Amino acid sequence: MDIAFNRSERPTLGVEIEVQVVDETGALVTDTAATKILAELGPEPGFKHELLECTIEVITDVCPTVSAIRRELREKLDLLIKVASNHNYRIICSGTHPFSAWADQTVSPDPRYHRLIEDCQWTARRLLIFGVHTHVGLKTGEEAIAVGNSLATFIPHFLALSTSSPFWQGRDSGLASIRSKVFESLPTAGLPYSMANWGQFQRFMRTLIGAGSIRSIREVWWDIRPHPGFGTLELRICDGIPTLDELCSVVALSQCLVVWLADRYNAGLDMFEHQAWTIRDNKWRAARYGLDAEIIRDEEGNVMALRRSIGDLVERLTPTAERLGCLEELKGIHTIMDRGTSATRQREVYQQTGDLSKVVDLLVEEMKTGSPSPLPDSDLIGGLVSHGSPLPGETGR
Hints:
Elements: E1 13-22, H1 33-41, E2 47-49, E3 55-59, H2 66-85, E4 90-92, H3 111-120, H4 122-125, E5 131-137, H5 141-151, H6 155-162, E6 167-168, E7 171-172, H7 179-183, E8 189-190, H8 198-210, E9 221-222, E10 224-227, E11 232-239, H9 244-266, H10 276-289, E12 294-296, E13 303-305, H11 306-324, H12 327-339, H13 342-353, H14 356-369
Parallel strand pairs: 8-9
Antiparallel strand pairs: 1-3, 1-4, 1-5, 2-3, 5-11, 6-7, 10-11, 12-13
Helix pairs in contact: 2-9, 5-9, 6-10, 9-11, 9-12, 11-12, 13-14
């Protein structure tokens, strides 16, 4: 099998957002909401079905800059919010819904998703999860493999900055991102394999397609994957991000880091790479503790605060951001660390109100305004690490 990588001459950008459709009570809709909304949108580009009818994927065109991504997404999201309101629906974006159950949902009509459920059964049916995917253009498949191998070192950074799924079916999971752990149950999801070169990636694809395990690259759902058709490296690790401000900062980090690593590769410099077991453990740490995680920094087992590592990375990428015209958005990473991610903000609201529908109201408002809610007048600021909803008889705290 020969897989051509469609060369991108510039580090162009593309973003895909999986948004949730909720009703006036805050629950995920269980009817054919996506079908109705998409029918009203008609030929409007950039909107499509996802696995479930409570989800719509919002897709940008190929964009040259982060500011272009912001403009296009604001227009698309405003339109979607308006059309959804015609049906008494509301729109949010977070890694999971705070309380709705996967067993109550309706599967979308796309035959691809029915095949997925037939193949994967329970692991697919419970995919009531929502993410953000960013694409950055690269020139060759070899470049995509080398940069992807190195980018895996930074999976905890992206996951922690986007954590927005602390709740699962009405209970606090105790994690900052339960979504990332649910998604890993699919047979071709989770951490990417480290590939020696583009040829080995093609052999991998040939094996799985030949065995009938997958039908195309679209069924390889790694946290990071090359996208040959688009000529991009796709970062898929992020939880759904509820505000445009935070999203654009993460997109800027994606573009700057991919470009910076590609520059190192093309200059023949050493690339940043961890062993697979270190990457796996660091991903878990970010999923559990979010920005308050300590990550393994070297193969001797030394650790460092993830916040410090992210801050160092932003400083290192500043010249690249200036060149790409996204320095303001990249500096927004500091704002995320100062305010706390959506996981923290959701827990703040729940601890204040004891009402998960109020958490949904927060997400609705943040989607509309594009900015995180301000700090509350309480001590609940920054990293709010939860122990999760306990089981009867549970001890330990």
